[in-house]
Write a structure and sequence with these properties.
By secondary structure, the chain is mainly β. The chain contains no helices and five strands.
Length: 67
């Protein structure tokens, strides 16, 4: 597996046991040591998740914001 460079954008996906993706979040690579991948979620990063039971196909999009 190739090493990721600091600053690259990656997508974290949470997958239901059925194999269906139920959430996604854009993350920025901070460091990839080969043993661990360190990421950060920047303000304004896009996210998507299911807006109901896994059987539905309705997704909601949002952006990350923190105070």
């Amino acid at each position: 597996m190739r090493s990721l460079d600091a600053g690259e954008t990656v997508v974290r996906r949470d997958v239901h046991r059925s194999g269906r993706v139920w959430s996604e979040q854009a993350l920025r690579v901070v460091a990839d040591t080969g043993e661990a991948l360190f990421t950060a979620c920047a303000m304004g990063a896009e996210a998507m998740w299911l807006a109901g039971p896994v059987r539905q196909s309705l997704y909601r999009r949002s952006t990350w914001c923190s105070t």
